[in-house]
Design goal:
The protein is built from 34 helices and 24 strands. By secondary structure, it is of the alpha+beta class. Helix 28 packs antiparallel against helix 29. It is globular.
Length: 920
């Protein structure tokens, strides 16, 4: 839309609630977010550089549109318009299919899950392409748009009197500002961390370049690779006498085994390539007290199996047998380290240390080189003398340039500062400088790239390329034999030194090239500053704060900063080149809460009275998000809605088996003038609001929205928070409560109020088929179990959903009831799987439901109900008084239609029938 164009109908939205405050299709957004996350390197921003916990672009887009779209008196049409703009309805999914192979009828016949599977990522969707869709959208909204950018601008004018101005003061990897600018918003971004600021800036500079700039960037990047290739080829450090070129070098550590006197190579596996059946075999060299490492291609099944066993097992050295020692003993690695240096620990490395010294406990050894000939055929071969000579030449070339390159910032010079991850590096290897994490060949190659980037025509826009190369070419890059690939340093965030690692040659570093494109983007203003010092007004603030976060951003990002530190000040004159650890807003506790209040008080001041804030955070414990809500209250903000969207996959930040978590979206407005109420009044209003919230959401189900119980549970928290944060409560000062030192397990008054709201919800969220009179008498874990079974029946297996249910029912030991705890495969134990365990000590101990489950498994095992009834009559307390209740609960258990419940459901039906025949 041009500056002179105006919306067709000037409907004022300034006082109207936004769509996100009333409805948000979290199920579809969760599926879209999960799809985006699982795309890995296929995500738009991951190609620019590594960052941790980036929020999905689809979630950012949904949040902005949800904040701008009005909530009208036609919720079904509101939802249709929103999903059409997002491309999440059937029409949008059909447009998003990558190939024009399926006709509409064929596509419509697919299930919603299959339709989504066929579609490209929502981040690539540019909005509806047909006039009919835009007519439906414009008729409902009173607009005259024909693109996402036009609808965003028109809605902004209608709501704020101007194009939306969006801000993010914790920009991190840049998802929020990137997508906001892509939607046409005037966008402000800042971060305290220079690595984060560089990524946020680079996202825009590389992916939203003009066609002319893009051509220049691509040409410069091509020149950089060619220049590095020219120099490496001229030096002859990657080519052999046959003209072949090495593209991967496999190294391992080596230690002296005092028991045998042999130097033993260390690795957890000797499998080199699964696909090509390549293994390394250790052959004792008795004369030199060492092992030759022979590379075998086309290994037999027996050789492949043997190679899976390395020389390090559970942190114990397990040397291969020799003639003099056919059955060597396993020795703990830590004992060997202590014995090597008489208990004094490892030697601390200095900046000038490029390779281990001869007296060091850990030595390094090249054992395999992968060669590629002119026809592209690859072969794995043992390292020979000529290979070692090329390594020595690489070291000599690096030493010649070392001082000059460090002064120019082409190789790292800064020490590693202390921190949780640094302490592991110190303990494992005593590397004290970032340069110690790279071999001479890696420093030489990476340094050539740094030098070429600096000399190119685009040194600023190609700086992030250097970080990608360092990430993929360090001593912490492991070799993956299943993919025949050196895996990047930050495949996890541990910074853990490896016993064996891989070095990339020039040709396998080509996949680190940064992508470029000419996507549309409005203005994006990026600043490097403390969130508390922001002075730029915005109509919408969207932030993803480092709340209760396990990620030490400032520490692990220093890996990248060690390569940027002298380039950033030269290219960005107003930026600094350290992570400002002391100023970082992170963690938990009083100082953190105080900083958060300062940040969000400032942001509240920097938005209009009808402005909106959306706070995203990925939560881990039940009280974290309630603390955050109290922070917002103390900052002059009130909660108008809260939603949970599943955004993390099983490949999450810490790589845990149960890592899936939901991102909580808190929608906030300015508090303005509020009424002071007593706690009893708050409780009464809270109960009414919770009940109304559940009823409203049930009505919305009729408008095509589907809610999980976790959604409903969280919505009740939001209802409670709306009441709490929209009033002052007599005797409660949120700032004082947040900054108060509490005993372990002690809850604030606000937490107690939220718990009471949860109890209201749990009484109303009754599984279908369970009578309210029975439900009222059940304990927390009984309610969780029965509700969990219903959740399973609907095909819901995300860990975050069950976690939310556990909070609602106060079922603190819910994990003890799981039959499978894998992140996206969560399910409850069946009666048979429970067996006789935990009848008197587990979370269901002593309850009627637990005794019934025991009787069911006895019935299933015996094939008849007699012994099950005998168990109930002898072991279930007061069973005669509870027989009617037992029959009704067995009826519910007997209706379980899940495959793994088949035998137990049948046993429950048989047992119920037998009890009915006994009479009451």
């Amino acid at each position: 839309m041009t500056q002179t164009q105006q919306p067709r109908v000037q409907t004022p939205l300034a006082e109207k609630s936004s769509l996100i405050e009333h409805a948000f299709p979290v199920a579809k957004l969760s599926a879209e977010s999960y799809k985006e996350r699982k795309a890995g390197s296929g995500q738009r921003l991951t190609g620019i550089g590594k960052w941790w916990g980036r929020k999905p672009l689809v979630l950012v887009r949904a949040s902005i549109l949800g904040a701008l779209l009005p909530a009208t008196d036609d919720p079904q049409k509101d939802n249709e318009v929103f999903e059409r703009l997002m491309g999440m309805d059937e029409d949008g999914l059909f447009e998003r299919r990558p190939r024009k192979t399926l006709v509409r009828a064929q596509f419509a016949a697919l299930s919603p899950e299959e339709q989504l599977k066929q579609a490209v990522l929502a981040e690539a969707y540019e909005g509806p392409s047909d006039a009919e869709s835009w007519k439906m959208i414009n008729d409902h909204l009173g607009t005259n748009a024909s693109s996402l950018q036009e609808i965003v601008e028109q809605l902004g004018v209608m709501r704020f009197g101007e194009k939306p101005r969006v801000g993010d003061v914790f920009s991190g990897g840049g998802s929020i500002p990137f997508e906001a600018a892509r939607l046409g918003c005037d966008t402000y971004a800042s971060d305290l961390n220079p690595v984060a600021a560089l990524l946020t800036w680079s996202n825009q500079a590389l992916l939203c370049a003009t066609p002319e700039d893009r051509a220049r960037i691509d040409a410069a990047q091509k020149w950089v690779y060619e220049e590095v290739d020219r120099q490496i080829t001229e030096w002859g450090i990657e080519h052999d006498e046959q003209g072949r070129r090495a593209d991967a070098y496999l190294w391992c550590n080596e230690v002296l085994d005092p028991e045998t006197g042999y130097r033993v190579p260390l690795t957890a596996t000797w499998v080199v390539s699964v696909k090509d059946r390549v293994v390394a075999e250790l052959v004792p060299d008795d004369a030199n007290k060492r092992y030759d490492i022979r590379i075998v291609t086309g290994a037999s099944d027996a050789q492949m199996t043997k190679a899976k066993q390395g020389t390090v097992v559970n942190q114990h050295l397990v040397p291969p047998p020799t003639k003099d020692n056919p059955q060597p003993h396993a020795t703990q690695m830590s004992r060997l380290r202590d014995r090597h240096n008489s208990g004094q620990g490892l030697r601390s490395w200095e900046s000038k240390d490029l390779i281990p010294r001869t007296e060091d406990f850990y030595q390094e050894r090249l054992y395999c080189v992968r060669w590629t000939n002119e026809k592209g055929k690859r072969s794995y071969e043992s390292a020979v003398t000529a290979d070692l000579s090329r390594e020595a030449k690489a070291l000599s070339l690096l030493e010649e340039r070392w001082t000059t390159w460090q002064e120019s910032g082409f190789v790292p010079s800064r020490p590693i500062e202390a921190g949780p991850r640094a302490s592991r590096v110190f303990a494992a290897r005593e590397w004290r400088y970032w340069s110690n994490m790279f071999t001479p060949r890696q420093l030489l190659t990476n340094g050539l790239f740094a030098q070429a980037i600096a000399q190119s025509e685009e040194p600023k826009r190609l700086l992030s390329l250097l970080g990608k190369i360092a990430d993929r070419n360090s001593r912490l890059a492991r070799w993956d034999p299943s993919r025949d690939l050196a895996i990047q340093t930050f495949s996890s965030q541990s910074l853990a030194p490896l016993y064996n690692f891989a070095i990339r040659g020039w040709s396998t570093l080509q996949d680190t090239a940064v992508p470029t494109s000419s996507l549309f983007s409005a203005s994006l203003d990026v600043h490097l500053k403390d969130a508390r010092s922001t002075m730029t007004p915005r109509t919408i603030w969207i932030t993803d704060p480092p709340y209760a976060d396990a990620i030490d951003y400032e520490e692990i990002s220093e890996f990248f900063l060690s390569w940027y530190e002298k380039r950033i000040p030269a290219l960005f004159p107003n930026w600094y080149a350290d992570t400002r650890r002391a100023l970082a807003v992170k963690g938990k506790g009083i100082s953190f809460n105080e900083s958060m209040i300062e940040v969000y008080s400032n942001l509240a001041h920097l938005m209009p009275d009808n402005g909106v804030q959306i706070v995203m955070f990925t939560h881990q414990d039940a009280e974290v998000w309630a603390d955050l809500a109290m922070t917002m209250w103390a900052s002059g903000l009130k909660v108008s809605a809260a939603w949970t969207v599943a955004t993390e996959t099983t490949d999450g930040i810490n790589g845990g088996s149960n890592y899936v978590q939901g991102t909580v979206l808190l929608v906030l407005r300015k508090r303005g003038e509020v009424e002071t109420l007593f706690e009893d009044d708050i409780r009464s209003k809270m109960r009414q609001e919770v009940s109304k919230q559940l009823k409203d959401m049930q009505l919305l189900e009729g408008a095509g929205l589907r809610w999980s119980d976790a959604d409903l549970q969280l919505a009740t928290y939001a209802a409670a928070l709306r009441v709490i944060t929209s009033h002052d409560i007599d005797g409660i000062d949120p700032r004082s409560e947040l900054l108060k030192v509490r005993a372990k397990g002690e809850k604030s008054p606000v937490h107690l109020l939220i718990d009471q709201a949860s109890q209201v919800a749990s009484r109303e969220l009754i599984p279908r088929g369970v009578e309210p009179s029975i439900w009222r008498d059940l304990g927390p874990h009984e309610r969780f179990y029965l509700k969990g079974l219903e959740t399973e029946q609907r095909g819901e297996h995300r860990s975050g959903v069950y976690q939310e249910l556990s909070k609602g029912y106060a079922a603190s030991n819910w994990r003890d009831l799981l039959g499978d705890d894998r992140a996206n495969n969560v399910r409850l134990m069946t009666a048979t799987e429970m067996g006789s365990r935990s009848v008197n000590t587990g979370p269901l101990a002593g309850t009627l439901l637990r005794h019934l489950l025991m009787a069911v498994q006895i019935t299933a095992r015996e094939g008849s109900p007699e012994k099950g009834i005998a168990w109930l009559q002898s072991d279930a307390p007061n069973f005669a008084m509870q027989q009617t209740k037992a029959i009704k609960l067995l009826e519910h258990l007997g209706k379980q239609a899940l495959p793994h419940w088949k035998a137990d459901a049948e046993a429950a039906r048989v047992l119920r029938g037998a009890l009915m025949n006994l009479g009451v």
